[in-house]
Amino acid sequence: MPADAPAAQSLVSQSLDSQLDALFAPWSRTDEPGLVVGVVRDGELIYRRAFGMASLEHGVANTPATRMRIGSISKHFTCLLALLLAEEGRFDLDAPIRTYIPELAGPGGDPTPRQLLQHRGGSRCYLDLGFIGHGLGLPPIGSALKAQARQTGRNFAPGEAMIYNNGGYHLVSIALSRVGGAPFEDLAKARLFDPVGMPATASVPSDHDITPGVATFHLPRSGGRWRRGLVWTDEIRGEGAIVSTVDDMLRWMAHLRARDRFGSPASWAQLTERPRYADGGVGAYALGLLVGRYRGLDIVHHSGGVAGGTAQMLQLPNDGLDIFMMANGARDADLPRLSLRVVDIVLADRVGPETPKVAADDYRPWLGDWWSPATSMVYSLVDQQGSLALGTAMSLVALPLERAADGRLIQPAGGLGEIEVAPGPGDALTIRFGAERETYRRLAPDAAGAAAFAAAAAGRYFSRDADATATIEAEGGALTIHTTDGLGEVRAPLVPLSAGVAYSRPGSLLAPFRTTISLEIEDGRAAGFRLCTPRTRNLAFRRV
Length: 544
Fold this sequence. Notes:
Layout lengths: L4 H20 L10 E7 L2 E8 L1 E3 L4 E2 L6 E2 L5 H13 L25 H5 L8 H8 L9 H7 L16 H15 L3 H13 L5 E2 L13 E4 L5 E4 L12 E3 L1 H13 L6 H7 L18 E5 L2 E10 L2 E8 L4 E7 L7 H12 L21 E4 L6 E7 L2 E6 L5 E3 L1 E2 L5 E3 L7 E5 L5 E5 L2 E7 L4 H11 L1 E5 L4 E8 L2 E7 L4 E8 L4 E4 L11 E7 L2 E8 L6 E5 L1
Antiparallel strand pairs: 1-2, 1-13, 3-4, 5-9, 6-9, 7-8, 10-11, 11-12, 12-13, 14-15, 14-22, 15-16, 16-17, 18-19, 19-20, 20-21, 21-22, 23-24, 23-30, 24-25, 25-26, 26-27, 27-28, 28-29, 29-30
Helix pairs in contact: 1-10, 2-6, 2-7, 2-9
């Protein structure tokens, strides 16, 4: 090595530090919550910083030792625990889940644990049903299993498609506890955290339990105020219960490379094996981890989100780069995007060109909301900073479309299976999700349609699967929908999109949880409606 090599390396390190410090500078403040970041390259810790406050209430700053919830990053831990118990012959990932949970007597017992862990089970999710029926109300322990067990419908038949589903992970957690002979929290500690040396990591089912060293999670309110963020259930488990530190998670990511403490090569291979869907496509969601490419480089990743907190784990398996970051309410901190910016900085000499955007201007006639009576689903095509993006069920979040290698216009598989958009007959669109390809017609709201919807929809409805009552009525000249399952309630404006379709627009903390409803008209009025969200399809309500 040349004599000046250490000095050159030091300059490179200083340059990286300054670039990364500049990236995270917006959160280096003492009056708002922030985030913690750790970066390892080729086994060497190259960046470890904390920004912002762990608690505005107590004036405590974040440090690299601060514990936070990592949300859904917990999922691949659950998958590894399942694979370890399968190695011992105590658990079968390919048997129906009712083998271990006989309470699932309906269609919710049909999927296998593997299908549930890959979000291909088709069952509805207790968390999403809760957002519909009681909002952010806190249900009693045991409600999650009861919600899953009472389902008579489902989003799709097992294996036919893919929709992100926390409820499936909850069911697998229950099954693992039963076959493992111990609470899920104890199994995770004994089989995963302790062998890797993660003393600050634990599976914590409730935010109402005091856990030392955990940052406060912050939700922004108007006027510069903040609200405390809490997990919406007291019984969260393999779907998102883990609290950890950046240091512990970097140790874990090192073990994801070494794989030397537990697990057979076959089990480790399954963890990142991409599933093949019924439409012939290959999914990005393996067992609790997303596998894909970024600017020509292989990546393995997962994000996590809780009320007032987010986290991101990103590993480049062939480039020696591990990135972990977590936030407790850092304003406007998009951790998945920030983690990719870290890749751009650290691997500046290796990253290739970015994926070309699909220009919204090229598809200007397609912009708007589209609905199919066959699926009751609403898709929206929007101009997102010049790129064409697709939203589902009037969600506030739309994801960019891409041009596939064969020329098709798709939203790549991720939180949902691949969605393909193409011209349809006349002025319609054809949209394919899973194995279903349907014609979608444009929704064009007008006063006459809104009046017709209000006249037909007014009344009271009940959903057995949600165990919830919905009341649609006019209040102060505006249409509202009030939903309750006895554990809480959600009241929101209902905005007609046509004479038979509308969407709810909750305010405040529930703003992201929009729903669409499609009326089923008989003799001039609605006999019922079908409710959809991005993760719930065709939930039936009947007039009472």
